[in-house]
Specification:
The protein is mostly helical. Helices cover 25% and strands 5% of the residues.
Amino acid sequence: MTVLYIFPVPSYFSFMLKCPTCGKPVDRDDNPWRPFCSERCKLIDFDKWTSEEYRVPGQKINPAEMPGEPRVHDRQGEDE
């Protein structure tokens, strides 16, 4: 006897998350490392952030050109 399984939605429509580090499929339920597949992949990603491999785009800022903090007596003069 042959059993035929019928799915209402084709399998290519099912949404499976992939680990951003290694690309393996990730189970959504009860995964303590979500969106990663394992603690290893989570730590690899964390290392990339801390070693500045990942960066948020923007202009470079020269710390010497940054305005200093306003002094306390300057702030008091503004309130009067």
